[in-house]
Amino acid sequence: MKYGKELIIDLHDCDVSTFTRKSIRSYCIQLCRLIKMKREDLHFWDDHNVPEKYKQTSEHTSGISAVQFILTSNITIHTLNLLSNAYINIFSCKDFNSDEALEFTKEWFKGTVKQSKTVSRL
Q: What is the CATH topology of the domain spanning 16-121?
């Protein structure tokens, strides 16, 4: 029996102007409309309101992480500003069109799909 589906996306060479709370919030709203998911809480982890000396400066940690909870699971986003990369996971036990979600995500962040994979969760 299939429990759910997860779309895993690695985007490179993104437009880093899309790596903002405002843009990511809009992405989540529009993506959820597209794939017909009910949005719940949205949480961010980043350097917003963090003193300069404590901000992340490593290529592997400088960026925004966000979790958009949806009624049937979650969407996670990790952006790396210095590398212009975004890593997105869309997981739901309700089915969705992974091709549409992938194309929308690629266009939103204006990146190149380095790899993507749709996984059936059993």
A: S-adenosylmethionine decarboxylase (3.60.90)
